Amino acid sequence: MSKKTMTCAGAIVLFFIVGIAGLSTYSAAGGPLPDLVVSAIDFKMVSQHVDAKGNKYWIFDVYITVANIGKEDAGKFQVLLTRNIGTDGSFVQACPACWPTLGGLRAGEKITLPPFQFNNAMGANCAFNAKADYPGNVEESDETNNTRTETFVQ
Question: Which of 63, 68, 69, 151 could tie 42 with a disulfide, CB 3.0–4.6 Å?
């Protein structure tokens, strides 16, 4: 095989590899895609209380920030907030209203949702998991980065 042929073959392989890598950021129509991520889950202490048995507990707000780090605007999507309330590590929907629908998010923008308020009964730490684009209706450049988990620690 001549040097010229090997260079051409290498260019074809490189083009193929770059083309495959690029598929994850473009839609089937060839355009760029959005990429929704939960960029933050923040907690703000509201008040501290003591129950009838003398146990301390806190009322706190949970703020979820969702960002579109993709190259295209995202249409309507939902965010699901779940809470670990058991000792087995499982998460359940945190509250009936903890599944808000957003009208969309422009490429490069982020939004912090209005807070959800909780208490940590019995003074226990509470883990929260937020997932952007639940149940996965938005075609994204990366479908693996929609979830974030943070723990409220007393």
Answer: 63
| CATH architecture assignment, domain 32-152 | Sandwich (2.60)
CB contact at 8 A, 113 and 63: yes
Distance in angstroms (rounded) separating the CA atoms of residues 72 and 122: 45
Residue with tokens 């260079």: 7
Neighbouring residues of 8: CB distance < 8 A, sequence distance ≥ 6: none
CB 119 within 8 A of CB 57: yes
pLDDT the model gives residue 116: 96
The DSSP call for residue 79 is E
Amino acid at site 105:
L
**Model pTM greater than 0.70?**
yes
